[in-house]
Amino acid sequence: MATVTIKHITKAFGDNVVLKEFNETFQEGEFITLLGPSGCGKTTMLRIIAGFEKPTSGELYIDDQLVSGGKTFVPPEKRSIGMVFQSYAVWPHMNVFDNVAYPLRIQKQSKAQIKEAVDRVLAIVHLSQYAQRFPNQLSGGQQQRVALARALVAAPKLLLLDEPLSNLDAKLRESMRFEIKEIQKQLGITVVYVTHDQTEAMAMSDRIFLINRGVVQQSGTPEEIYNHPANQFVADFLGKVDFFKGEVKTGRIVFTGMNDQSIPYDGPRTGKVEVAIRPENLYFSPDGELEGVLEAQYYLGDVDDCRVRVGEKLVRVIASGYEFKSLKIGQKVRLGIRDFMVFEDDGLLEQLLQIQT
Q: What is the arrangement of strands in the sheet containing 57-62, beginning at the earlier edge strand?
């Protein structure tokens, strides 16, 4: 296990600053996810940790050793890291055993040591029975586990994963999330994981660092970031959410463009606000605060994904799949609200969403 200490790291390519003042410590045994849209700087941060890029300024420590900063630079092969890339990068001319054994042969370990280490790690990734197969005889998920085994076989202190599941189909991607997390728990290894998939980040992470345009917008546990986002960009990027403009008036928020319908509010905001409501926090109820017309519904088995017209606004509601048969397009409905978030209406949402795209 290793700690990673990042001190004020900035990275620029010419005039293009892709990371600004990244400053954090990843603790031993943590599963850290760097999350954000394409081009936000998350992979650049991972490559700096790996030693494939040098920071423009700042320092990086693995445990107590300075590995990047000033005139110091420790090359990747001396950082005791394992890395898994988006592409499987397994050698087609080698069988599974030889693919996994390759890093140990480079270290000139004995045959007995290599066999013991490879057998152990193949058992961890559930590939023992495939040791003599070649990559073209394996599924995509099995090839990805070969790459993971190869990264783990030399017992690195730190495991880096760069969008390793993006080439897998949806069902396999879901199962691999839990496999990687279980392996990490079993080995107690520190992991830094890069993804743009918020579901992956939520399912696997101890802490998430949500980055946009080189700046960490918020860091924290999945629950903290999901339920207490620092700004509208965080609320929008992590999970499903709709935003509605409104104004705080005498203990209520009156929505704009929703026939002056309102909801109770006793928070600190005043004046014009942005209200963020996640669709799972809305529900059909005869006593609900909002009134509208059911305009569309999409039966997805476990849920009924609905659209309700409230004044000029279309509101998304994720209801139980059991409600599908009891609702009819065109009927008047009322919506209750379990929870909502309120932000200052400062134009930040539009700016951040423009940056994201």
A: 16-26, 4-13, 57-62, 65-69, 72-73
